[in-house]
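Predict structure. Chain length: 556.
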Amino acid sequence: MSWRVIMNKDSREYKVKLAKEIEIRRAIAEKKKDLKYKADFKKFSEDRLKIITKDAAQGYIPFKFNQAQQKIHDAVEKQLKKKGRVRVLILKARQQGISTYTAGRVFWKTLYTPYTRSVVLAHDSATSDALFTMSKQFIERMPDDTAPELVKSNAKEIKFAHNDSGFRLYTAGSPEAGRGTTPTILHCSEVAFWQNQEKILAGLFQGVSSADGTEIILESTANGASGSFYEMWKKAEQGLNDYVPVFLPWHMTLEYTMEASENFVRTKEEEALSELYNLTNDQLYWRRMKIGESGAKKFAQEYPATSEEAFQVSGANVFDIEKIEKLKVESATSIRSFNPKMMSWDEQREGHLEIWEAPTFKEKYIIGADVALGVGQDYSAAIVMNSKREVVGLYRNNRIDPAAFGKELFYLGRYFNNALLAVESNSMGVATLQKLKDMSYVNMYFQTKIANISNEEGIRLGFRTTSASKPAIIGNLKNWLFEEELDIKSSIITQELKDYLSDDRGSTGAGPGCFDDSVMALAIACEVYRTHIDKLTNDRVGFGNMYIPETNHNWI
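Prediction complete.
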């Protein structure tokens, strides 16, 4: 029998024991709830965190995720489950509550993880102050008897008594920013607007270990196609770093609407946007009003619909992004390089080769090639195109010297039915061409030039790009893409096409931190196709000697 049965319910002893039992049960229940909160940030934020919204009249309300915050949360938790740690890049439209999400997450992780050192950096002191105020209000607005005891609380630092964990806020660029810290959790806000991004981030990243449980979250609106944030984003999109890119378009935010006027009529552009993103008239009307306030370029930067749109403000895209998006990217047979002895692909050698179509009997092929120094920066690139204007092969390597690149091109050209090989002859290309000449490649692109005062013609091997020829071949490539006359299945090429920009002076090239080597190789291939496709024959299938149209020509 329990003590409740044998004891007098009216006795003082009974009442004291009952009160103790209730207290114990409440403590157990609270402990179970606390363990649940430790494992579930979303539940913790809804039950224990209060925030103030844009509508101040509402006062403090429970922190429930909006659509953008939920997308971030899903990405973070997915990566944490998969890799044990978090490395996330967030490209966002303005005022989507992402700083609020990250501030709440930092607070939660620090509160529940012993010996955690969390660091938050904002791009200016006002933002840093706002984030710190938000964190202090998290504590002040927690339910009774749940707020943690603090051993330190000053203008920029909070430290919890129960687990020896804490967080500190800095302003990026300040002398003390992250100095001497070894953060477990790192949140960087509006990174694209930092001065000396590369230097500050390098110092911070060195302090964060790769151990399980560590988190790095970088978030920002775009600030042009330059800087460490932009470069990290482009690499993340290509899978070239450990970061997961998460893009948040403006139309994900439900507040970005405005009741459309009665006479509102969609433009063709707005109609296309509606079909693409399923936008309402109220969203389109809000967009129109915002563009009227700040202009289309400013709107694209602060309220982008795509990541490309966000970054394109610093330079105009040369090629039509919508046309590029229509290209059907497909996986290819991916191999590292060509084995000349076995006429097969050798996985052990450096370089990267993708083949979408093996050569077919008597098909005519053209190879355009752009040559780099081979020191790990720009790429030596080769594009293989067939007679149907289909890109069927791509080779690129940023660690191959120009002469060795010539050898690779020799065997690549032989493999594709002795393709007409057009190598850019500028600077490093001379060594590549010389190697091909020494190996007696049978089908070289050449240009004729007056060699001397006697008007004797000479042969200049390769394709020479100049201030006059470059705009012409880029213009031809642009037209072919616009008319949808090219079949490109390579994600590498399409990304370079997106990153190819024109500045205010009309100069074109890769955006900062990007590459254009495949674009140039493709442009050369297209130009040679345009001028020579009708002249190509199928009688050079097989191996032979250097093809020289007239043997009395001099090499120059």
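Summary: The chain is about 40% helix and 20% strand.
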